[in-house]
Every structure is written in structure tokens, then in C-alpha cells.
Design a protein that fits this description.
This protein has four helices and seven strands. It is α+β, with helices and mostly antiparallel strands. The chain has one domain: Gcn5-related N-acetyltransferase (GNAT) (Aminopeptidase), CATH 3.40.630.
């Protein structure tokens, strides 16, 4: 498998993938969001850095994911590499690192991501109002009981 732990040298590529991917998560919203680069987003960067971060690397980092306890905190794939199963491989790897129940958070309108998570046994457990770069957005918490998929 091409998944390994993040090294300090990987951060510039992680920031690049995030910048190319983050607004995709919000593309189904009725309003337009302005990108807040990860390196400038103290809240999200701090949460990411306290997590275990893994990269999908086949000679070039094409995606990354992060877990903190039982929470999947990040799953991003470079747009030019999508459709090749990289997101699924990262998700499966992250789930293999979690004992018991797993949870994650996703924009309520991001149906493609939610469909992927549902295929792995996740179900929407909550809806709440949050924000991204000062703009409000509804999100869902999704929960998976181990062994469901």
C-alpha cells in the first residue's frame, strides 16, 4: 500500500492539496465561499497537527487523511487524481486504525462524500450549524459502528 505517515517535509504538498480541494466540499452550497488556506486557518491546522496524518504517496503525494482518536478529521485527494480509488484506500486505511465506533464531519450538502461514507457503514447522526472562513454552513456528523461494512 502507498500510505505512510506524514513527515515535516510533506506539509507544503498537504497545504497544496487542501487548497485545491477544500472548496469542493462546499460546492453544493447556495453561497460562495472564499478559500482560507490551511496554513492560515489556525483552528483547522491545530486540529490537524494534533492528529495522526497519513499520506497516499506513489512517488508524488496525491491525498491525505487524518485521525484523532475515533474521529476522521481529514480526507482530501488532489482533484487531478480523483476517480482512481485513492480516497477509498485512504478511508479504508484510516478505518483500520480505529478501534470501535468511528465518526467524521462533512458539509450537509456534500452528497458525493456522504455517499462514499455510507458505503462504509456511516450514518448521519447529527446536523448542526458551523462556519468556514466566517460564513455559516450546515454540517452533519456521521457515525460508523465497527463491522458495519
Amino acid at each position: 500500500m502507498n500510505i505512510r505517515e506524514l513527515t515535516e517535509e510533506d506539509y507544503p504538498r498537504i497545504f497544496e492539496i487542501y487548497s485545491k480541494s477544500k472548496l469542493d466540499e462546499l460546492r453544493f452550497e447556495k453561497k460562495t465561499f472564499k478559500l482560507l488556506p490551511l496554513e492560515d486557518d489556525e483552528k483547522r491546522l491545530s486540529a490537524l497537527k494534533e492528529s495522526k496524518i497519513y499520506v497516499f504517496d506513489d512517488g508524488n503525494i496525491l491525498g491525505f487523511g487524518a485521525i484523532f482518536g475515533s474521529e476522521i478529521r481529514a480526507l482530501f485527494v488532489c482533484p487531478s487524481a480523483r476517480g482512481n480509488g485513492i480516497g477509498r484506500k485512504i478511508l479504508e486505511f484510516l478505518l483500520s486504525q480505529i478501534c470501535g465506533k468511528a465518526n467524521l464531519f462533512v458539509a450537509k450538502t456534500n452528497e458525493p462524500a456522504k455517499e462514499l461514507y455510507k458505503a462504509y457503514g456511516f450514518e448521519v447522526s447529527d446536523e448542526f450549524l458551523t462556519e468556514y472562513n466566517g460564513e455559516s454552513v450546515y454540517a452533519n456528523e456521521m457515525v460508523r459502528i465497527k463491522g458495519q461494512y
